[in-house]
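Q: My labmate handed me this sequence with no annotations at all. I'd like to see what the chain might look like in three dimensions before we decide whether it's worth expressing. Could you predict it?
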Amino acid sequence: MKKYFLTSLLSLLVLTASCSKEEVNNQIPEEVEQFIVTTDDEINYFIWKGLNLYYLWQEDVPDLADNRFNNFEGLYTHFRQYDSPEATFNSLLSDPGVVDRFSWIVDDYVALENSFQGINLSTGLDFGLVRDVNSATKIFGYVRYVIPNSSAATAGITRGSYFSTVNGIQLTDSNFRDLLFNDDASITLGFADYNEGSPVANNSTAVLEKTEVQENPIAVSKVITDGNQKIGYLMYNQFASSYDQDLNAVFANFKAEAINDLIIDLRYNGGGSTNTAGYLGSMVTGQFIGEVYSKEVWNNKVLSAFSSDNFTNNFPTKITKTDANDNIVVDEAINSLNLSRVYFIVSGSSASASELVINALDAYIDVKIVGTTTVGKQVGSITLYDSDNLFRSGDNLNTDHTYAMQPLVLEITNKDGKNYPNGIIPGTNFTGINLSENIGNLGVLGERSDPLLDRTLEYISTGAKSSAKTKDFIKTEEIFNSKLATPAKNNMYSELK
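A: Here is what I predict for the chain of 497 residues:
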């Protein structure tokens, strides 16, 4: 790492909150003595500074206490015991994996920013990984969908394909990360026949290139006629703010078609922007403009710095966006359906902003759920950068590295203060039908051949909640999915400046 001489040691760190939620400044005292500082030291200080100010559980981590370090030499020396910024970051989390399951740090914030808008280095396959029913270690992949204009699309791979080897090596629960999510420019998948959950190789292979792929999160939008009913169907795979206007256009079409009911399919949606979640809530409704959509709880430092109004989000009336200079570049009225009922399709891959929309709307209208238990991610993050105010637009953005943090900074609830940290469970804590996706019979997304969509349409037409499973339905254990390997993961984030 690059070294330079700091002619004095910063002897005391004073953290001061500014007067707006968007910008909380760290004031640095005057330099007092010489100390050799590396770029690693700078990154460690950035990590400590950001978590000390914003981390949701800051008060519970002794090393994040305001008086933990008397001077910068003490801070730098302490964190030099860790061999990487990732190790420093993890040392400052509150009971990782138990209390904090979702904070993370990245070494390339450009890739993270792109991922938030659906741009990732990818073969174009969105897939789940499940355990072979006849093996304790073997796993296989099933294709959930294929992103258009990708290597996988060019290769003709479709939803419902199965693969068991990568580069000729059998996938296991211990090697799948190295085989599927490495830095290689391409991979060779070996396909298999399902064979009742214990796939058998069929000698078909495909070489897939990893390229930068932009995924439109609006995978399917259509109006389905069922008897005399017109039902809107939206498969929505990420709350990506760059597609907010496209989402609004979908609802303009639903409105023009005068749909009677609406199905929003979030089974593969790991979350995204809380702003977009608010827009979607207003698109579904529209009769609650100005009322409370969600509430946020931050740490005591942040809560004490601002009025309580800053932590309440109301149903919006417009999609509004500004540029880097706070000039308004989008000011578009939301197309609202004024519905009093909505159906959601969910799964164990539905998280954060997906759960927020369901929870927020449930406080106002009749929300019905088809699927399986969601992740239970009721906490959100912000992206912190190594600049004076910890934001991308802040002064003195450190150009010696591209680390950024995505720490959990808020817990979010509906207007009644309710959320579901153990997940939304169809038929238990939400009205609906508990039904797993049958990976042996996936069907076509947006068509009645998709069993989950077909069952939801039946639920709308009959109200019946019973769900007889077909004899070929075999329960499989999913251990990972491709979205969790992207920089955005299953994150819910607040877009502060």
